[in-house]
Amino acid sequence: MLPSFIIIGAMKCGTTSLYEYLGPHPDLGRSTPKETNFFLTPKHFSKGVPYYESLFKKDRKIAFEASPNYTKLPKFPGVPERMHSVVPDAKLVYIMRDPIKRIISHYLHFYANRHEKLSFSEAIRHSKYIYIESSKYYYQLEAFLEYYNKDQIYCMCSEELSQNPEQEMNALCDFLDIPYNFDINKLNQRAHVTSQKMRVSKLEYILSRLTSSPKHKWSIHKRLRRWGTPMESPVPSEADLELIKSILEPDLKKLREFTGIDFPQWSI
């Protein structure tokens, strides 16, 4: 079974929460793992379509996955082309968040896992393609529009999903052409809240790097996470904000024109 729809991102915008909300729906079969990353690189793609199909439940009407790395240009080029070659009729769901808050959360995620050593101000200048470029939402969408029609792409606002989950999930179900069937109590829960993060200890980081087994990694994290350091969210300086806004404002103008959504809750 191949997916009928794919949650393509963006990172730190609620893809895990959306994946969890959709999971219990009786018609849907989500991938295991959540992030297959099958279309991410030629190496991932070389595993073959039969492998990809094996990641989805066979006893459901509709399959889906959620890989936010799919919208991380320019780091991972070629995703839309590879995806279209396998699932040209798939619908794509792109969930977005206040771009500055997303950048901060992205940085915290990397810093928490010791993939980032620089300060926030240094990181957005030396590695802006990792952080700022992932918040250039129209730039990311534009690559998919070369292969998919506009009516195949559904854009969601993370803030609206948090504040009006029933309304937003109803609208998504209409787009996916599936019946609404969700537990309201589950819809009021959010996954991977950044304020709950701890920076991993050096021991946890080293041990997790020594194994490629997700099961072993999870066991290490579960046992050693309590030795981590509580995270504090960075406060961008005025210079940081000016830099980010100067890069993002032209892109967000195009996004608003494309979607017809004003995103009034965003800071840009």
Structure description:
By secondary structure, the protein is α/β, with parallel strands linked by helices. It folds into two domains: 5-193 and 237-259, Rossmann fold (3-Layer(aba) Sandwich), CATH 3.40.50.300; 197-232, no CATH class. It is built from 14 helices and seven strands. The strands form two sheets. Strands 2-3-1-4-5 form a five-stranded parallel sheet. Helix 12 packs antiparallel against helix 13 (214-224). It starts with a strand and ends in a 9-residue tail after the last helix. The model has no long low-confidence stretch (mean pLDDT 89).
Largest sheet descriptor: 5 strands, parallel
CATH architectural category of the largest domain: 3-Layer(aba) Sandwich
Low-confidence stretches: none
Say how many strands there are: 7
Fourth CATH level, the homologous superfamily of the largest domain: P-loop containing nucleotide triphosphate hydrolases
- How far is it from the N-terminal to the C-terminal residue, by CA? 41 Å
List the helices and strands and how they pair.
Elements lengths: L4 E5 L5 H8 L5 E3 L11 H4 L3 H5 L8 E5 L12 H8 L4 E6 L2 H14 L7 H7 L1 H4 L5 H9 L7 E5 H6 L1 H12 L7 H4 L10 E2 L2 H8 L4 H11 L4 E2 L7 H22 L9
Helix pairs in contact: 12-13
